[in-house]
């Protein structure tokens, strides 16, 4: 079996993460549904393959797709990675999917003799390019220990949180907070601007306070200059994650009123047709509800992600 690393899924995140593996010296082979999206990886040194089964001879195959159904399709559907006689030794998945879906996939993989590690991340494509991702993994500890150097090539820090699907629970909790924070950040920003504080000054002050974070900092230029076409994450994807969060809360008997209200706010954006645009466009919706007409402040600001 080849020691090459396979990669399936070259969206904004997948491309950035695969490039980090190439830079670290790994022999990376990639497949993507839209072949043209693989071109930048070829320029970076990756080998582009024609089919998913062409990656089955790799020892390790990473997957980074949108949904549980997408992951099942690339693994098990006709022409999938695991449908031939040759199979990889392990699959490492960094998608944002449900705990239940991940457990089902683990059961199917392990029945085939294929090891499985969950490895979701915190950060968007720009964070990934800057080498500042946090990667959280779960699954067999020996498997994690074996591949930890490879994971470290893609992140500023990697952590093992336990066996099974616990990294899925972590990611669901993380992205639920992701939604609640942007909802509240938009609300207080509009309140401050209506009261008379320039938007960029208010956001800069929040970033420099105890409440500031990498998240508030990298969203500040977009919120200041209304550059929502520079997409990091869409409303539709955020709605999917809010639903996963509320589903997990229901399963574990945890009331989450702030998340529930945020979910409805995000659903309204999706219903209004916001698609290939960043979810931070929520600022415009909150402003419109408040009778405030937003204008770009055209202020050059650092997002704290310079690599």
Structure description:
The chain contains twelve helices and nine strands. With 307 residues, the protein is an alpha/beta fold. The protein folds into two domains: 2-163, Rossmann fold; 169-289, N-(1-d-carboxylethyl)-l-norvaline Dehydrogenase, domain 2 (Orthogonal Bundle). The strands form two sheets. It has a six-stranded parallel β-sheet, with helices on both faces. Strands 7-8-9 form a three-stranded mixed β-sheet, sandwiched between helices. The protein is globular. The protein starts with a strand and ends in an 18-residue tail after the last helix.
- What is the CATH first-level class name of the largest domain? Alpha Beta
The CATH superfamily of the largest domain is NAD(P)-binding Rossmann-like Domain
Residue-averaged pLDDT: 94
C-alpha end-to-end distance: 36 Å
- Spans of at least 5 consecutive residues whose pLDDT stays below 50 are none
Output the structural class. alpha/beta
What is the N-to-C succession of helices and strands? EHEHEEHEHEEHEHEHHHHHH
In spatial order, strands of the major sheet run 3-2-1-4-5-6
Overall helicity: 40-55%
The total beta strand count reads 9
Q: What about the largest sheet?
A: 6 strands, parallel
**What is the count of distinct domains?**
2
What CATH architecture of the largest domain would you give?
A: 3-Layer(aba) Sandwich
- Per DSSP, the total helix count is 12
**For the CA atoms, what is the radius of gyration?**
20 Å
Beta-strand percent range: 5-15%
Tell me, what's the shape? globular
